[in-house]
Amino acid sequence: MSEGETAPRVFTWPDKKRPRICILGGGFGGLYTALRLESLEWPDDKKPQVLLVDQSERFVFKPMLYELLTGEVDSWEIAPRFSELLANTSVQFFKDTVKLLRPSDHLGVNGPTISMSGGTVLLESGLVIEYDWLVLSLGAEPKLDVVPGAQEFALPFSTLEDACRVDRKLSALERRNFGKDSLIRVVVVGCGYSGVELAATVSERLEDRGIVQAINVETTICPTAPPGNREVALKVLSARKVQLLLGYFVRCIRRVGEFEASVKPTNSGAVPPISAEDDLEKYILELQPAVKGFESQILEADLVLWTVGSKPLLPQVEPCINKPPELPLNARGQAETDETLRVKGHPRIFALGDSSALRDSKGRLLPATAQVAFQQADFAGWNLWAAINGRPLLPFRFQNLGEMMTLGRNDASSFPEFYRRPNLRRPYRSYRKKASVLD
Q1: Scanning 163, 244, 254, 383, which has the fewest C-beta atoms within 10 Å of its C-beta?
Q2: Can you tell which superkingdom this protein's organism belongs to (predicted)?
């Protein structure tokens, strides 16, 4: 232990005989795994003790983060405390951050029996948790270190803190520009689901007081979305006068210096020169074409929102001598699992959501969405029950229930999966959100 580190303390489970399940991460996967375990029928001597660990004290319903920017909801409505959600259960909750994982369930060492410890988890607070079964559901964080300047000057939109920070920044810009002719310029990097929903929401909020520009390396928005959803999104963005720069990637982001002259962009992003009095609040984005024939672009912005890329938050595994290496990870940093959601080579560790690299029957990696994590939680809870009670584990099969996009206060687009059936006349629906989505 290096100087300054907290001396480790061992967590004492209430019952020394009943199985101990530690769940790392309280998103859709982790929270609903804990609730699923609570709902199952257990023999008295095998009902597990469940401990949920998350770095935040609140569960965040991320699909509704955009509605914080429109003022439709308050933060407490979409981010209740875990203590409230788990009040009537036997699940314990710790607010802490995972520091180190020490698994001891490698195949060929301890084997998949339930009579020996599965390993330990070290938390940042210095607390050591010994577990029999572990669930990895730590989610992911925005990947901002791939473009120079993004980490310093761009704001992600992934957590409750991110949404509140963006809301405060927009409010400050609105106050600064109140009564002035200058427009608030917002650039959204990425035109996947998150980027499109964010661009639609911000443009609706600013109305004629601002300009929103959205950048995407693809030549279309939401390339994986059903055509109907994409068509509706394009119509909404067009109606809100969102400028799309498709076929470009960001080469760098820099803040305009005190003595730096304003660079005039090309036609698609033309803006007036910035004044010296507020140049420290403006940023320059250099765009590189991803398609032949396109010219480089330079944009100026008051606010840069980043929605591209993510990296899983899996904990570091303590190195072991003469034992198998760390958790098997794919190129994205997700844990490789078998179809029962167990991490390969670690029969006592389950991984789901962003932490898991699981493919569907066609070999495609399952998307990192709330829908996938929610369904995996149901299977993870059941398979933990089966493993503890010596029953066969079930293979996970994802059932796509469709997709929905929130496009501001009033607009949305829905694509239920059953519309994929042939001979249906309307492959999608677009509607006013207040009238249909929230009923």
Answers
A1: 254
A2: Eukaryota
